[in-house]
Amino acid sequence: MEVAVPPARRVLGPLARPAWLPAWLPACAIGLSSLTVLAEPRDVLHPVIGLMEGALIASLAVAGALLVEDDTQRGNALLLWVVGALLAVEHLHLVPHSPFPMLGWVAGPAAAVVVAVVLVRFPGPTLSPRGRRWAGAALVVLVATRLTVSVPPQRLRLGWWPALPLPGAAAEAGLRFGNAYLLVLACWFVGLMAWRITRSRGLSRHELAPVVAASLGATLAIAAHVVSVFSGQTQVGLGVLVAEQVGLLAVPAGFVFAASRMRAARSAVGDLLLEVRSSSSPTQIEAALATTLSDPGLALHLWAAEEELFRTAGGQAQQPAPGPGRMVVPVDAEDGSPLAIIVTDASVARHGQLVQASVAAVRLALQNAAATEMLRRSRTRLAEAELAERKRLERDLHDGVQQRLLALGMSIDRVVHSAPDEQTRDLAKAAAEHVQGAIADVRDLARGVLPAVLTQSGLAAAVQSAAERLPVAITSSVPGRRWPLAVEATAYFVICEGLNNVVKHAGSLRAEVLVDSDEHVLTVTVRDAGRGGANVHGGSGLLGLRDRVAAMGGTISVDSVEGAGTCLVARLPYE
């Protein structure tokens, strides 16, 4: 099935796509403003002012092109383009060809009202009741009066449009009243913008601040122009006109700066993804999310499925209760099950794409953290099961094989003492020696499985017992408290392997063992002052330690510099 292609699209090809539209706007605006500036009489418009007005129109087009990238700002972008077009039409009010004089005469005030509407409602899509009242008052005075009332020197500007002419005294009074009312509107506008910036929060304040600053600068510049006219000057000076144009240029510059802040806010999600890794704690995720959404008061509540309640990032059980001006953003897994709830400022609701991307980042981080925690608990259960099996094997060796060997040894001793001949006694003595060797092997095997002193007295006593059997001077600092047996067993094997390496490879007569812990991590350090230069990546003993420590969800590192000794550090998490 063939799809009919419009003629314009066939001619323009990809340039006719809406995505390319903003790229054409600055060029069209510059061309339009240039034509209107050329049409302006030379004795009325100074070339510098003409160039600045052309730059203003082009800047408004550029600002609109940047704002249109945000779905929520397309209305404001369109209005900025309308303002640029009205300013271009305004230059036609002195061209004596109807209907251009009338259009140019009304376009200037209309452009002022439209840009003020954008300023008053940005970054929202609609006007507040306060903004609607101001826009209505400005529209009536600045636009409607120009269509209904005409002073004699300006009558030709309206051409054929019927307007009520005012006599000289009334025209002078009306002009002064209009300028005074314009100053009142300017003060009202300043107060309205100040009220908006004080009420805004978070991302909205970041976006609104440059626009408010630019609007205040433009208002002051226009007020200076009005004051100079109101004071009775026959002609406004070039300096005042240049200052006015600079103030007006600040408006599109403010929108450009605000658009760049919007883009920076969207790109902040990438930083959020980097910060909320699977190893991040809930408090770290909450802090990163608060930075991304520019909300210091943001709260993250995690769903505890086993308890069927919400907990704060700090772990306290608390039901989310958003107050005034706050909103709740749910974070659900792909299957729809709840993961968390974000309580943040209601102003972020307008930033739908940013909120969705932030929710996706938090979902990914929480799911990764849950998977990591599940893996850690699984490894811990395996380590505990292995430890229980070792204890069972040790008990079986002690109560079963060792006891049988001891009984066999006593029976052979009786044979030695009661044998009728020398040859039998020699054979019995040889058998007794083999039995004693077997008993020693069983004891060594049982000791390698798990020492009884560790299970009965703890890690400090087990380390002291192990140190006494080695031919090096060992200084140990081990707290006398107890930890989970699986953690103690892993720490004990790390210490034993580290001390055995000191005896076999370090060439040192001294070693140091340090054990320290905080609320959730046990840190084991084995240090010597030997020859160093050990292979930190090889060796079956070290590889076995890495696997054993990893099974507990911990980490192990070895620092061995040639001539500076070796330092082995293991960190074991526990609950």
Structural notes for this entry:
With 575 residues, the protein is an alpha+beta fold. The protein contains 17 helices and 11 strands. It has helices spanning 7-12, 21-39, 47-67, 74-90, 100-121, 129-148, 155-158, 168-199, 202-230, 238-275, 282-292, 352-418, 422-449, 452-457, 459-468, 485-506, 540-551, and strands at residues 149-150, 164-165, 299-304, 309-312, 326-332, 338-345, 473-477, 510-517, 521-528, 555-560, 566-573. The strands form 3 sheets. A 5-stranded mixed beta sheet has the order 7-8-9-11-10, covered by helices on one side. The longest helix is centred in the last third of the chain and has 67 residues, at 352-418. The protein is rod-shaped.
A few lines on this structure:
Helices cover 63% and strands 11% of the residues. With 575 residues, it is an alpha+beta fold. It is rod-shaped.
Order of helices and strands: HHHHHHEHEHHHHEEEEHHHHEHEEHEE
Question: Can you give the helix content as a percent range?
Answer: 55-70%
Derived structural class:
alpha+beta
Report the count of strand segments. 11
Radius of gyration: 42 Å
What separation lies between the terminal Cα atoms?
66 Å
Shape: rod-shaped
How many strands, what sense, and barrel or not for the largest sheet?
5 strands, mixed
How would you write the strand order of the largest sheet? 7-8-9-11-10
- Average of the residue pLDDT scores: 76
Spans where pLDDT lies below 50 across 5 or more residues:
1-23
Summary tags:
575 residues; alpha+beta; 5-stranded mixed sheet; 4-stranded antiparallel sheet; 17 helices; 11 strands; 63% helix; 11% strand; rod-shaped; disordered N terminus
